[in-house]
Specification:
OB fold (Dihydrolipoamide Acetyltransferase, E2P); 3 domains; 9-stranded mixed beta sheet; 3 helices; 23 strands; elongated
Length: 401
């Protein structure tokens, strides 16, 4: 009987060792520190995060000289490289930043006790922090105690949400920013986040997504669509701005069509200026001052003035009607048939002299020429205060349907 008990006891012991080994292996695989209470650190007076925030507001800065602790759940860590020597903890609806003397092994979901003696309660530009904190004074009690983010509108952001884990829906980056990466090589990336309602009405675009150039996703292009994003809210008083820190790129889910369409990339200069290889408008703009060059582009409009300078869109007819008498004196050419930015166009002067028949293509008399392609030879020089072409050479032009 004793042999059976002894044998059974050995089997149980082996099973416990195997289970412990598996747990520790799993923790190492996920880079988790092994949880356990550090009995060398006294607990002392226990503060809540709520109490610390009240103390910071009342005192400004408080140095802890006695044994004291605060408990919380880690909501952001240094794993992605977007934070350095910093983490955030939250308890209920209150949160605070831990700014440490060196990097730590904390991970999102760790339940921790922070020993406060020797640390300082303060703020950095409006964001509350526990500063000068030795990572050895943060005891991990358990892993995997994840907190769900609070879903809010960007217009609902207020001081009570500092350092909180939040989620924004129906958000996207502004169209003008989407060609950028999250951060450049040598600085933080800072891009406004626009939030819309379900009908694509803009609600707000004041929140700044701030990303370290050391983040693992810093060189990834900003998402092109609309969707949700999860992260930590902080406040930067110097710029009076609310900032948002992404925890992991997997929590950026912007896969729906954007409310603000992404602009097309600018047309690149092409051509050599010959009849067989004419300049496009982008190249003609660059080569202003060159003589006897061929260009080719769409007819997109006409100027409503015959002299002076175009300073507003009111001085341009984009069609389809061309009733101004001055519409006989010029046409506007572009690389895109729907172009409406005069700065991307060439203003072609149509001389009335009998040496050239090019004036016959004017839109006043022939509105059906709108949208057709024109290839023409002339001198590249400004007209009506914009990039242009004058001195067209005889009948050296071709109108293409």
């Amino acid at each position: 009987m004793f042999k059976s008990i002894k044998k059974y006891g050995i089997l149980v012991l082996i099973a416990m060792i195997v289970m412990s080994s598996c747990i520790n292996k799993n923790q190492r695989k996920n880079n988790y520190p092994t949880p356990g209470v550090d009995f060398t650190l006294p607990v002392g007076h226990v503060y809540t995060i709520d109490t610390l925030l009240y103390m910071q507001q009342a005192e400004g800065t408080h140095k802890f000289t006695q044994d004291a602790s605060v408990y919380g759940i880690v909501t952001d860590d240094e794993t992605s490289g977007n934070l350095y020597k910093a983490s955030f903890i939250q308890d209920g609806d209150k949160a605070i930043e831990l700014y440490m003397k060196s990097t730590s092994g904390l991970r999102i979901g760790d339940s921790v006790r922070v020993y406060l003696k020797g640390a300082t309660l303060s703020e950095y530009s409006g964001t509350p922090q526990i500063q000068d904190l030795d990572p050895k004074n943060v005891t991990i009690l358990a892993n995997g105690k994840f907190i769900e983010p609070t879903e809010i509108l960007t217009t609902q952001v207020n001081n009570s949400l500092k350092c909180r884990l939040v989620k924004f829906n129906h958000v996207e980056f502004r169209a003008a920013d989407r060609a950028n990466t999250y951060a450049p090589d040598d600085a933080y990336g800072q891009f406004n986040l626009a939030q819309y309602d379900e009908n694509c009405n803009l609600l707000d675009e004041s929140i700044i997504v701030r990303t370290s150039n050391y983040a693992s996703f810093a060189k990834r292009q900003l998402p092109q669509g609309n969707g949700s994003i999860v992260g930590i809210l902080t406040y930067y008083s110097t710029g009076d701005a609310w900032q948002f820190t992404i925890r992991t790129i997997s929590e950026v889910q912007m896969n729906n069509d954007p409310c603000e369409a992404t602009p097309e990339p600018p047309v690149q200069p092409t051509g050599t200026g010959t009849a067989d290889d004419p300049y496009n408008m982008a190249a003609a703009i660059i080569h202003q001052g060159d003589t006897a060059q061929w260009i080719r582009g769409y007819i997109v409009g006409s100027a409503n003035i015959a002299s002076g300078a175009i300073i507003s869109d009111d001085q341009i007819s984009w069609g389809p009607e061309f009733t101004n008498e001055n519409n006989k004196a010029s046409i506007i050419m572009a690389d895109k048939i729907d172009e409406r930015d005069i700065n991307n166009c060439i203003v072609l002067y149509l001389p009335s002299a009998t040496v050239s028949s090019i004036r016959e293509i004017n839109l006043k008399d022939h509105p059906e020429n709108l949208g057709k392609t024109l290839k023409v030879l002339g001198n590249l020089k400004p007209h009506l205060g914009k990039s242009g072409m004058k001195d067209t050479k005889g009948d050296n032009y071709e109108l293409i349907n």
